Amino acid sequence: MACRAPSSGSPSSDTPSMKNRGVFFITHGCRVNQYESAMMDRLLAQHPPDTPATTDILILNACTVTSLAERKARQAAHRFRREHPQGHVVLIGCLADAVASGLTRFDDADLLAGNAWKTRIVEVVRAARSGTRGLLPAIDPHPLDTEISSGTPSRIRAYLKIQDGCSRGCTYCRPTQVRGYSRSKSIRAVVAEATGLIRKGFPEIVLTGIDLAQYRTPDATLSDAVRGILAIEGLLRLRIASINPSALNASLIGTIASDSRACPHFHVPLQSGDNGVLRRMARGYTVATYVEAVRAVRAEIPHATFGTDLIVGFPGEDESAFENTCQLVKDVGFDNLHVFRFSARPGTAAADFSCPVSETVKRQRADLLIHRFHDDRRARLDNRIGSTHHVLVEERRGGEWRGYTSDYLYVHFTSDQEIPVGSIRPVRIVSVVEDHLEGAIDE
Question: Which end of the chain is more exposed for a tag (fewer CB within 10 A), N or C?
Answer without folding.
Answer: C
